[in-house]
Amino acid sequence: MSTNADRFPDVVEVVVEIPRGSRNKYEFDEEAGVFRLDRVLSSAVFYNFDYGFIEGTRADDGDHTDALVIVDEPTFTGCHIWARPVGGLEMHDEKGYDFKVLCVALGDPHQSHIERLDQIRPHRLIEIEHFFETYKLLEDKAVQIDGWRDRGRAHDVLRQDRDRHRAERGG
Fold first, then answer.
1. If you count DSSP H runs as helices and E runs as strands, how many of each does the chain have, helices first?
2. What kind and span of H or E run contains 82?
3. Assign residue 107 a region: left if phi > 0, alpha if psi is -120 to 50, beta otherwise?
4. Where are the domains of the chain?
5. What is the structure's pLDDT at 1?
6. Which CATH number fits domain 6-168: 3.90.80.10, 3.40.50.2300, 3.10.129.10, 3.90.1150.180?
7. CA-CA to 12 of 20 to 30 Å: which in 32, 87, 102, 151?
């Protein structure tokens, strides 16, 4: 019997930190096992997607792999979503290289048919880029957007980050 967990990297488990529509930036404190308010965005922008991380991964920056989830209705902090990676946004910020995996929620019938980045409305991709270009401006932090990458690149990043997570855990 196959489960969604067996379908990685075609299907990933995203843990939502920030629901769509929020200006509050929550982060999961892995050591304490709780979600904490990191800050309120100082720019007049809000998250236009659910934002969180992918279970069982470890990115170059030491955190779990970042995930953006396209879903019609916002969920809530701590919600687990089975999602399909369709691409990713490569960027750099004050901490260095940053890859954000773009996913669609399997449980949302308005999104569940989407398999590839080119099936996402072009304007939605521009809105997401604009968010990341502006959300740290008033904090005097620079963000460089390197561009969208396809599902194959997202899968490569996810496999590397899964391997890093397993090595960290000794297996």
1. 2, 8
2. strand 80-93
3. alpha
4. 6-168
5. 45
6. 3.90.80.10
7. 32
Q: Which residues of 122-161 are buried (b: 16+ CB within 10 A; e: fewer)?
A: eeebeebbebbeebbeeeeeebeeeebbebebbbebbebb
Q: Which residue has the tokens 């990115």?
A: 59
Dihedrals phi, psi of 2, to nearest 5 degrees: -95, 140
pTM of the complete model: 0.95
Q: Which two tokens stand for residue 113?
A: 């048919």
Q: What is the pLDDT of residues 41-80, one digit of tens each?
A: 988 899 999 999 999 999 998 999 999 999 999 999 999 9
Query: Measured between alpha carbons, how far is 72 from 49 in angstroms, rounded to an integer?
Result: 9
